[in-house]
Amino acid sequence: MSFYDGNKRSGENEPEDEDFYELRHGKKEDDDSMNDFLKNEDFELEGYEEKEEESKESGENEGLRSKRIKQRRRRRNTIFKIVAILLVLVLAAVAVVFWLVPWIKGRFFTESEVPEEERITVPESLILGDDVNIVFSCAGENLLEPEISSIILSSYYTSGNKLISLCIPPRTLMDIPGFGAETVGNSVNIGGMDLLDLSLENNLGMDIEVDYHILFDVYNTVNKLGGIDIELDEEVLVKNYDDGSTFKMEKGSNLLDGAETLNFLKYFSGIEKDVPVENIVKQKLVIDAIIKKIVGTNEEEFSSNLNSIEDFIDTNSSMEDRLKIFAVLSNLEPANNNVYNLDVTPSEDPGVEDVIYIPQNISKLAEIFSKDEIPEEEETDDFISTVKITILNGAYDSPEAFRLAGNTSESLKGLKFEDGTNKYEIVEVGNSQDIYDSTQILIYSPDTNKLAAADDVREFIGTGAINIREDEISNSDIILILGKDYLALLNEPAQVEEEESLAKIIVLNGEGTTKLAATVTDIIDDYLNSGGERVIMMEPKDADNHDYTQTRITIFSSGEGISELAQSIQERLGVGVIEYSENNVDNVDISIIVGSDYTNQ
């Protein structure tokens, strides 16, 4: 039997494996390659190395493995790109949260709290040591090309703590230096506030030099301050220049926003032919209200308010000067806050559509702005005819002052001339807006009869300073504001015996720190009167200057126990030199001039 026959016989019992046959003849390899390529596991990364090893063992060709590697690399690259994009988005979100959002807040939204490093520090001393001349002006929102609605020249005099203000219609014709005849309000658009200062210096006939100017963007200033309060003595219907409508302001207190304040200033600026130009003095109410609102009730509020309006003021004053100006002017008593209007007449030029004013009688201004106090006594003729009088209680914070104005009015009603007619017609009785230490007798539209009546009132009540308000308007000839000095006179008979046994002490501020004298007065009062009343503490005030480096305790009386009181005061203060004097201008037993040695200890 041949080898072939043996194989054949063997093949009959064991047929040749079909797969092996096809593999040997090249068929099976191709089919398997196609089937493997379409399997789902080829698209999975997991187990790639094992599959590659199996592929080597199963004899898969090199081209197939390369395709799979490229596919998986592409998948990895895609994943990397997605991760990179997500990372970029995260970084962008972080940038928005930590940079963009704070920037938007800072740019478009005002934070209520000012950072510590940006806060304005209010100095300890807020006293104007020198006389100053200030120009206050008001405009709308655009300070670069302002539409001036108010010009007020104010002079502050340290002697008497007095402010004299002149309200000037912006459409007053003046000789603008370098530009000729032009309305004074337009000088600001021509050459800024410096040119306005120079124009006022050259055209008002006074030897005056403007020290500071302050231009308010009234609209934003008032809104930033949360509105201002204007006190009116009569109801007023004001024009709204934005839409031509009107709004009513009541007699008494009125809270105005920025737009209303701007319309109020325009209405009383002299542009309305039906509104007397003399009423321009009402514009001073706005300046006073703004200053009062800026100062607020404490130093923190003062600093915060100045910060909030800093971008809405054009001024040549330093921050320290501004602080002092606002602080001093906000605390003026009404009797020391005098306001006048510039005497002007409308131009009769038919070619001019708008109202233009020509100054008149500027020679009177030098007298108005004089530093001299108005004399308390004037030479008057006899009081011969009835005058209208308003009586206000200016000491109503004391329980003893109840019905002070009412009782006084009843007394004045009983005063008659020889023919039986009443000397006084009582127009109004009530409380004043502020508290007064000294009684004020204010005369409006004075003549010899009213001056004589004022003198008669002062003689009747036993006190009072006569002040003439010639350029102001009132429905009374005289306004009598009863101060604490009048209340003291009424109570004097019951207290005179007790007071004669008590030492009188007065504290004067010789260093300049705000409310220093008042603070020391309270300290001495608590120290000496805690166990029973031993002394009478007089109303504190400023010394003749603020340059005292050493506290002076001056004794004016040789009464019993006065020297011991002075020594007790020296011990309590921890500083001071005791001295004696006969120059007792304050009529006290002891005066204390507080110097810088006290504040520096």
Tell me about this structure:
The chain is of the alpha/beta class and 601 residues long. The protein has four domains: 18-109, no CATH class; 132-223 and 258-368, 3-Layer(aba) Sandwich (Aminopeptidase), CATH 3.40.630.190; 387-488, Alpha-Beta Plaits; 501-599, Alpha-Beta Plaits (2-Layer Sandwich). The protein contains 18 helices and 25 strands. The protein has a six-stranded mixed β-sheet, with helices on both faces. Strands 20, 21, 22, 23, 24 and 25 form a six-stranded mixed β-sheet that branches. Strand 17 (440-444), helix 14 and strand 18 (465-469) form a beta-alpha-beta unit. The longest helix has 47 residues, at 62-108.
